Amino acid sequence: MNRYLPAFLPLLLCAGICAAQAPAVSYSSISELNQLLAGLQQASQSIQDDLSHLRVDKWKTDSNTKKQSQSDVESIQRNLQSALPGMLNDLKNSPESAPLTFKVYRNLDALYDVLNSMVESTGAFGNKEEFQSLNKDLGALEESRRAFAGRMDKVANAKETEISQLRVALQTARAEIPPKKTVVDDTKPTPDKKPVKRKKATPPKPPNTAPATQTPPQ
Asked: Tens digits of per-residue pLDDT, 46-65?
């Protein structure tokens, strides 16, 4: 048995429970999001149309102000034509994603600040028709921004509830796992016997075989 399996077993059980209990996106949630997207796309198209007819070069102001205002116009147009559509497409694929919802809201918040500055500049240096059109666009963008703020709050609360449920499911899964049995061997180990070194036997000395000395006769 894999020795890492017991550690990951609670997570595997929780993953199965999460997959089984994860609710599908409700029809009302998708319907609400579609309404928000439709309103935002309409506001986006209106802003782009009005900005394309804006004649910043005719404003009665200095060249630096005109240059900055024209840069703001191009920045708003790039966002509405490139960045925002991609965000909305990602949100369509994951309607209740909190990070994606917040990403759209943050982008709308930044757009609102720049467009608000453009409306103020148009009111000060542009003609009345340009100001009225952009001011109306600003109101529509503000409605979308508030709507997405409300949507973000709902999604965050739903995710918090889901996380709480998953924590309970994980605790339940852990509680159902039987405790690991530990086998204790209380028998005393037999000490290893040290080998007895035997002394080498000393070989006996050979007997003295030398001939006895004879005394010569006298």
From this structure: 999 999 999 999 999 999 99
Q: Model-level pTM greater than 0.85?
A: no
The answer as to whether 98 is a domain residue is yes
Do residues 20 and 169 make contact, with C-beta atoms less than 8 angstroms apart?
Answer: no
Q: Decide if 191 is inside a domain.
A: no
Chain Cα centroid distance, residue 27: 26
Q: Give the residue numbers spanning the domain of 59.
A: 27-160
Spatial separation of the C-alpha atoms in residues 195 and 134, rounded to whole Å: 102
* Of 31, 26, 27, 35, nearest in space to 147 by CA: 35
| Residue 144 to residue 140: CA distance in whole angstroms | 6
CATH of the domain at 59: 1.20.120.230
Alpha helix positions (H), 126-187: 128-175
Number of structural domains (the chain) is: 1
The model's pLDDT over 149-175, given as tens digits with 9 standing for 90+, comes to 999 888 888 767 667 667 767 777 777
Residue 205 — left, alpha, or beta (φ > 0 → left; ψ -120 to 50 → alpha)? beta
